[in-house]
Amino acid sequence: MTYATLSQVKAALRITDSVDDTMLTLALNSADEAITAYCGRTFGTVAADTVRYYAGAKADVIEIDDAYSLTSVAWSRDGATWTATTDYQAEPLNSFTDGLTWPTTRLRAINNFSWPNMQGIQTVKVTGKFAFGSVPFSITQASILQSTRWFKRLDSPMGVTMGEYGALRLLSRVDPDVEVLLQPYRRFRAAL
Question: Cα dihedral angle (68, 71, 75, 79), rounded to 10 degrees?
Fold first, then answer.
């Protein structure tokens, strides 16, 4: 899954030829993997539905991976399918929180319904498209910034580069501007 295109990265670097395309593509793919790992989620869309299983930690809410499309929700023991709007609701409601659009990350039991909890056993079978559903502009910008930084890092193999004010030590963490762009999308999960 790519969050920015090679042409966007080349435009940011003002590169017009294809001499460095292999190394630029490597930097871009590495940046996208780092963004996925840092945020704990995959941005974009997927081609087909997949099946995932979840264990209920609470009777009324199940945390799931990002899903932008749900096909079915069922109890994994007998396959009984639950119905949206009568048995559960997808959250966040309206897919909108804090000024940003979000995929489904929780399923809440409604109308006196509750999720089966069998002490950590995977009891809920969810079928759908698991990803963020789009690539937000901030994620594309973060991908461009981080990939250009890593591409330029090849010019400073010892981690030091010469800048306008002399020698500069390069950071060994996510670029601070990239971190600002990624922070709203970072997903933290509690260990069960």
Answer: -160
Handedness of CA 116, 118, 119, 121 (dihedral sign): negative
Which residues, 6+ apart, have CB-to-CB distance to 153 below 8 Å? 170
Facing residues of 108 across strands? 61, 89
How do the domains of the chain map onto residue ranges? 6-43+135-185, 50-129
Distance CA 133, CA 105 (A): 12
* CA dist., res. 73 & res. 64, Å (int): 11
Q: What is the pLDDT of residues 99-137, one digit of tens each?
A: 788 999 999 888 776 666 555 565 788 999 999 999 999
Measure Cα distances from 72 to 31, 83, 130 in Å: 33, 8, 13
